[in-house]
Amino acid sequence: MALTALDAKTALIVVDLQKGIIGSRFIHAIGPIVDRTVELISAFRKHRLPIVLVNVAGVAPGRTERQRQHASVLSEDFTDFIPQIDRQPDDIVVTKRTWGAFASTDLDRQLKSRGVTQVVITGVATGTGVESTARQAYEQGFNVTLAIDAMTDARTEAHEYSINQIFPRLGETGTAHDVMQLLASRSE
C-alpha cells in the first residue's frame, strides 16, 4: 500500500452500493464495506469534495459465453442506493449499463467541469465495477486511489488479482483510514 497524496480536487466514486446488489453473496461481510464507505462519504462532504454515486441498471449489449447477471427484468428498487449512503442533492449520480462508470456516461465531463484531477474509488464488485471504473478513470487522465478495505467481490480470485496485480498499475492503494488521514491533514 502506497497512498502518498490527494489532489486539491479529489472526488469519491462509490460503485454499485444499491439495493439490487447489496444482498448478493460477497467474500467479505458487506456491513464493514458499507461502514467504511459511509465514513469516506462523510469525510469528503466535510471537505466539500464531490461525491459520485454510481448505480447499474442493466448490462451492455452483445453476446457472452456466460449467463449475465441482472439481465432479466429488474425489481422496481434495484437501482435505489442503500439508505446508509444518504444521497444528497449535490451528489453526482451516474447510472450505467456497463461495468465501468465512465464508458457510457458523462462522468468524465462532470468531474472535469468541477476541476477534479483525482478519484478515490470504493464499492462492489472489485474485479468488475470497481476495476473497470478505475481503468477508465486512469485512461481519462485522473489520478486514481483505491480504498481497498471499502470494496469486495463475490470471487476471491478476482478481488485478490485486482488488488495485487491491477490496482498498483492504475494508481495508489490504501485503506479508507489512510484516505481520511490525508483529508484530515489538509485542515491542520
From TrEMBL:
Record Gene3D superfamilies: Isochorismatase-like (3.40.50.850)
Pfam families xrefs: Isochorismatase
Annotated ranges, domain Isochorismatase-like: 10-177
A GO term, aspect molecular function: hydrolase activity
Keyword annotations of the record: Hydrolase
InterPro entries given in the database record: Isochorismatase-like_dom (IPR000868), Isochorismatase-like_hydrls (IPR050272), Isochorismatase-like_sf (IPR036380)
Signal peptide from the UniProt entry: none
Alphabetical list of PANTHER family matching this protein: ISOCHORISMATASE FAMILY PROTEIN YECD (PTHR43540:SF7), PEROXYUREIDOACRYLATE/UREIDOACRYLATE AMIDOHYDROLASE-RELATED (PTHR43540)
Protein name: Nicotinamidase-related amidase
Organism encoding this protein: Rhizobium lusitanum
